[in-house]
Amino acid sequence: MTRADRTLRQLTGELVYPESPRWYRDSIWISDVHDYAIKSVGLDGRVKVQAPVAARPAGFGVLPDDSLLVASALDRRLGIFENGRLREVNDLSELTTGLLNDMVVGRDGTSYVGDTGFRPGSEANAPGRIILRRPDGSIHVAAEGLAFPNGMALTDDESVLYVAETFGQRLTAFTVGRDGHLTEPRVVAELGFRPDGICLDGAANVWLAATFDARFVCCDTTGVIVDQIPAPASMAVACVFVGADRSTLALCSAQTSLQDLPRGMSKGRVDVIEVGISGGGRP
Known about the structure:
Blueprint: E1 9-15, E2 18-24, E3 27-32, E4 37-41, E5 47-52, E6 57-62, E7 68-72, E8 77-82, E9 85-91, E10 100-105, E11 111-115, E12 128-133, E13 139-146, E14 149-154, E15 160-165, E16 170-176, E17 182-190, E18 195-201, E19 206-210, E20 215-219, E21 225-230, E22 235-242, E23 248-255, E24 267-273, E25 279-280
Antiparallel strand pairs: 1-24, 2-3, 3-4, 4-5, 6-7, 7-8, 8-9, 10-11, 11-12, 12-13, 14-15, 15-16, 16-17, 18-19, 18-25, 19-20, 20-21, 22-23, 23-24
């Protein structure tokens, strides 16, 4: 498929700020962050509110029993989504100094969630960290010194964790060691833009939302940009491969600004596009 053949198809424009998309139960589930809710978007465009999250939803992922582990940003807690509501399982406030952000969950339930390190707009910039939640529910600091850790993804064999450092404007990788420990941090790409949500494709390339550049960028494992797609709104937010065979790329974006967003003044949307390759890894 050539790039000229590719056409965006809008599923919905009735969101506020769609983050952390995941393919789950035959729909695209998202954190509609500034509408304080977990929502699902069907491939037919139908939007459904799955659960309100008063402390603002952040990243989430699918556990081995097919339930969702969800991070709430403002109170820095993890909960399990069941029966339309969240049941708290971990309080991370003593391990974190900022807001909880994006998350990735491995096949066995090993989970990683980002702590921004500070509260944007009200505190000075400070380094963030990645919190590890093991399948037994125990929590540990897995990595520190990150410049606003954001989107995360695991490779197919779950041996490498990729992290978008938004304020660092780089893509960083860690080797996943025994018991989920993160070792060997290295910079994969100095990006020149602030990345947000990420996902992997079947060729082990990393797709990133270039937030203020209003585009989605694909780079290979050496950091070379090999593809890009213009965002249909002013902010590119996140991306994920969806569908039963994960052959379709879903793009989350929003028409807003840094001044308008905290006031909930944003028009979020989800679009899909065929890019000639299927998804890989764990988003």
